[in-house]
Amino acid sequence: MLLGAAFGFGLVVALRALSGLEIFQTEQTGYPHVVVPLITAPFGFLFGFGAFDYWFRWAAGKPTIPDDHADHGATRWQDYFKFNTDHKVIGIQYIVTTLFFFLIGGLLALLIRAELAQPGAQVVAASTFNGLFSTHATVMIFLFIIPIFAGLANYVVPLMLGAPDMAFPRLNALSFWLLPIAGIIFLASFLAPGGAFDAGWTGYAPLAGGAPLGQTFFNIGVQFAGASSIAAALNFLVTIITMRAPGMNLWRMPLMVWAQLATSLLVVGATPFVAGAQFMTLFDRVLGMNFFNFLEGGDVISYQHIFWFYSHPAVYIMMLPGFGIISEIISTHSRKPVFGYRLMALALIGIVVLSYSVWAHHMFVSGMFSWLRVPIMISTMLIAVPTGIKVFSWLGTLFYGKIHTYSTSMLFALAFIVTFTIGGISGVMLGMIPIDIHVSDTYFIVAHIHFVLFGGSVFTIFAGLYHWFPKMTGRMYDEKLGRIHLWLTVVGTWMTFVPMHWVGMDGMPRRVADYAAQYGDWNLVVSVSAFLLGAAQLVFLYNMIVSWRFGPKAGPNPWRANSIEWQVSSPPPMYNFDEIPRVVGGPYEYGTPGARHAIMGDDEGAAVPEPKPTTVAAS
Amino acid sequence: MTRLPILKLVLATLALGAVQSVVLLQFDWFGDAASTATGPIDTLMDVTIVVSSFIFALVCVFLGYALIKWRAKPGDEGDGVPIHGNTKLEIWWTMIPVLIVVALAGYSWAVLDDIETKESNAMTVDVYAQQFAWTFGYPESGNKWAEGELHVPVDRQVIFKLHGQDVIHSFWVPEWRIKKDAVPGITTDAIVTPDREGTFQLVCTELCGIGHTTMRAKVVVESEEKYNQWVNGLEQEVPAFLMSADQALEVQRRAEERERGIQGSGVEETGSGNHAD
Question: Fewer CB atoms < 10 Å away: N or C end of chain A?
Answer without folding.
Answer: C
